[in-house]
Amino acid sequence: GRKGCTLLTVRKNGLCAQGEILQQLFAGLSGFDLPVLHFVCGIDQITLLLSQRADSQAAELFAQSLKKKQLADAVQITQEVSVLATLSRNLLQNPAIAGRVLNTLSAQGIPALSALQCQLSQSFLTAVPDACFEQAIRALYQEFVSTTQKGV
Fold first, then answer.
1. 3-class DSSP state for residue 45?
2. Measured on CA atoms in the order 80, 111, 119, 95, is the torsion positive or negative?
3. What is the phi/psi pair of residue 50, to 5°?
4. Which end of the chain is more exposed for a tag (fewer CB within 10 A), N or C?
5. Dist CA 135 CA 121 (whole Å)
6. What is the per-residue pLDDT across 85-138, written as a single tens digit (0 to 9) for each?
7. What is d(CA 85, CA 123) in angstroms, rounded to the nearest whole number?
8. Residue 84 backbone dihedrals phi, psi, to 5 degrees
9. Using CA atoms, how far apart are residues 117 and 128, in angstroms rounded to an integer?
């Protein structure tokens, strides 16, 4: 896991259908020195997971720039975010593993702010509030590692 990241969610009607908007968005990131760890793209929104090096003021200026250029209808910045990576050789063959991650977090009252499983990847990434980082790590360890060692 990694603490101290930022989620930046950009909403625009038809965002992913308009490739030129995504190109401009990613080009703008480098101008504001906002390093992206991962991103999740939907039909009308993209959520960027920015590294710990991302400056909060730069993120805010980038958000304002997107709105000014009409590249976004709305931008939400969520700071103090941790990213957790659940690794498994069986992730592609057993997609229920991702469900177990989310269920485990939910059972502990930990909100999943974002989730990403890349195709052909052996990792499932989940973003949670920094304040829940240690609790989330313990819960996932208990669910996956501790039960495996007991033969469950």
1. strand
2. positive
3. -95, 145
4. C
5. 25
6. 988 887 778 878 889 999 999 999 999 999 887 666 788 899 999 999 999 999
7. 6
8. -115, 135
9. 15
